[in-house]
Design a protein that fits this description.
Helix content: 40-55%
Number of domains: 1
Order of helices and strands: HEEHHHEEHHH
Number of strands: 4
Largest sheet: 2 strands, antiparallel
Strand order of the largest sheet: 1-2
Radius of gyration: 17 Å
Shape: globular
Strand content: 5-15%
Number of helices: 7
């Protein structure tokens, strides 16, 4: 079982990621260019959002997303809260997860996988306990086990539990289940979307040192 998981995660999954990501870029290119045009006008020419994120083994890479927030600041020059900077176009893109499309480029580059724990902020790295750090034993994904089991409606600890469970149970069938589950949630619009519940509070650490998973 362990050998099968290793073979899949190291070789087969990488090939599948590359093939599906290239196919996805080609198929979604018309949507990609429409979004580019919309964002060009709504964000004054700024269409992409780049940010450092930790990948496999905590290696830092730049994640690519469509820019859903503007850069408006207050009187002191500080950025306004995220909820106040989220544009109408950005809200639409987030509602249907279209802002994630450019991450297919990250998959092609080898920074990410289609399926895996979501790549979070670099500043969270010192806050993970020994159990939670295992989420970086595999490449981060565009979608993952935590995303189809609650996404932003569950606590950070629950998300990390799902992430590590995925790492320890990775398989082709589990990835297929997550992929299908992701599409179902998008098309069924499961749950009520609002900008408020899409803005996630920062992770500030957990008192728990280990987990029973």
């Amino acid at each position: 079982m362990v050998k099968t998981q290793l073979l899949y995660s190291k070789f087969i999954k990488t090939i599948i990621d590359l093939v599906l990501a290239v196919f996805g870029v080609l198929m979604l290119s018309p949507i990609f260019f429409v979004i580019l045009i919309l964002l060009w006008f709504s964000n004054k020419g700024k269409v992409f959002f780049y940010q450092d994120r930790p990948g496999k083994n905590e290696r830092i890479f730049k994640i690519i997303k469509f820019k859903t927030m503007n850069d408006k600041t207050d009187a002191q020059g500080q950025l306004l809260p995220p909820i106040e900077r989220l544009t109408k176009t950005g809200m639409f893109l987030r509602k249907y997860s279209l802002d994630e499309i450019p991450q297919l480029i990250n998959v092609i580059k080898g920074d990410m996988s289609l399926i895996g724990p979501r790549p979070l902020h670099v500043r969270y790295l010192p806050l993970y306990n020994d159990f939670q750090k295992h989420r970086h034993d595999v490449k981060p994904g565009i979608t993952g086990w935590a995303q189809i089991n609650g996404r932003n409606s569950i606590s950070w600890e629950e998300k990390f539990n799902y992430d590590v469970w995925y790492v320890r149970n990775i398989s082709l069938w589990l990835d297929l289940k997550i992929l299908i589950g992701t599409f179902l949630k998008i098309f069924k619009k499961e749950g009520i979307y609002s900008p408020e519940n899409d803005i996630v509070p920062d992770f500030t650490g957990t008192l728990q040192k280990e987990n029973s998973y």
